[in-house]
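Hi support team,

I've been running sequence recovery on a batch of backbones for a student project. Most finish fine, but this one hangs at about 90% for roughly twenty minutes before it completes. I'm not sure whether the input is malformed or the queue is just slow. I've pasted the structure tokens below so you can try to reproduce it. Let me know if you need the job ID as well.

Thanks,
M.K.
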């Protein structure tokens, strides 16, 4: 137990440092490429920080040796969007309130509502279709759904890159690998981003192992572990990146990091589940997916009715998280 606690703290530190280095590097990547905050946060950071939770179902489903491995893989696939929508977004909102109290920012979110609308719509489309595929017993249909989900993400990337106009051109702190360079070399930027991703993925892997050891000691089942505990660990990169950017008043990158990861998680990992498993989900997993959909639908409704989102609106998902935890653990 002591070793697991030490690994828990050490891996968390690795993730935090990796996220700090990653945000610095990926911002310089966006600046050198001349792309917008939306592209940096939603695509570059969204995909990069989604790697830990994507690797878990990939390894569990295709390389697992037991039935529990499939449970963990499927639970992680559905659990990741659930954690992003019901835990990561509320934590971001709480971060805003803390930073306001510290005098570091204003109590509102400066967002590109068009980009947020696109991400919420595409998440609802892709994740709803993926969840509905559970009730279709025909393998060819599930393969067709997998192809459709990949097309949705390709459309999302194209739409984001082509329509974003606010170029990421503000003054940035120096690149960590080139502290004196006003315009760091592409190679150094790539090395820093790659190093940070390795640290994030490696730290998340160690973190999951520590959490699994602690959960095993508490007698928690593999499915509950994959639904409620493992995603908390693997979503840490998105949470940390977003808090860093909210502290720096870069709201579009902060929220876009989470929403972009949600779009990614509703496509590629679901494709892994569709192609690598029978994709027959038990009730607790279906409820988790349904709550993710309800949270995103609520945010999209508020966005369209009010013309924007405030931090308090992001807290809505926390109600679903607490309710689901009570439902699973009762």
């Amino acid at each position: 137990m002591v070793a697991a606690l030490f690994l828990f703290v050490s891996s968390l530190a690795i993730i935090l440092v990796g996220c700090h280095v990653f945000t610095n590097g990926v911002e310089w990547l966006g600046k050198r490429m001349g792309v917008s905050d939306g592209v940096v946060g939603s695509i570059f950071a969204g995909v990069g920080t989604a790697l830990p939770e994507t690797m878990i179902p990939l390894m569990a489903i295709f390389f697992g040796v037991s039935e529990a491995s499939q449970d963990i893989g499927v639970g992680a696939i559905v659990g990741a969007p659930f954690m992003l929508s019901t835990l990561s977004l509320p934590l971001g909102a709480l971060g805003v309130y803390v930073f306001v109290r510290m005098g570091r920012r204003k109590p509102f979110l400066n967002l590109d509502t068009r980009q947020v609308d696109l991400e919420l719509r595409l998440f609802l489309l892709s994740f709803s279709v993926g969840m509905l595929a559970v009730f279709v017993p025909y393998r060819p249909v599930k393969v067709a759904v997998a192809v459709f989900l990949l097309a949705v993400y390709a459309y999302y990337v194209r739409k984001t890159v082509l329509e974003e106009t606010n170029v990421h051109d503000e003054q940035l702190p120096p690149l960590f690998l080139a502290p004196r360079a006003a315009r760091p070399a592409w190679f150094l930027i790539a090395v820093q981003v790659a190093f940070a991703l390795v640290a994030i993925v490696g730290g998340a892997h160690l973190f999951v192992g520590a959490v699994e050891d602690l959960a095993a000691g508490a007698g928690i089942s593999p499915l509950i572990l994959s639904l409620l505990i493992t995603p908390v660990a693997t979503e840490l990169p998105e949470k940390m990146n977003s808090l860093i950017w909210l502290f720096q008043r870069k709201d579009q990158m902060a929220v876009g990091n989470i929403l972009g990861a949600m779009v990614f998680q509703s496509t590629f990992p679901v494709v892994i589940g569709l192609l690598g498993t029978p994709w027959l989900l038990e009730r607790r997993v279906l409820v988790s997916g349904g709550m993710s959909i309800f949270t995103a639908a609520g945010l999209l409704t508020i966005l369209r009715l009010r013309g924007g989102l405030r931090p308090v609106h992001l807290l809505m998902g926390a109600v679903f998280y607490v309710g689901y935890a009570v439902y699973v653990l009762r």
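--
Follow-up from support: It reproduced on our side and the slowdown came from queue contention, not your input. Residues 2-165+185-329 form a domain with the A middle domain of Talin 1 fold (CATH 1.20.1420.30). No action needed from you.
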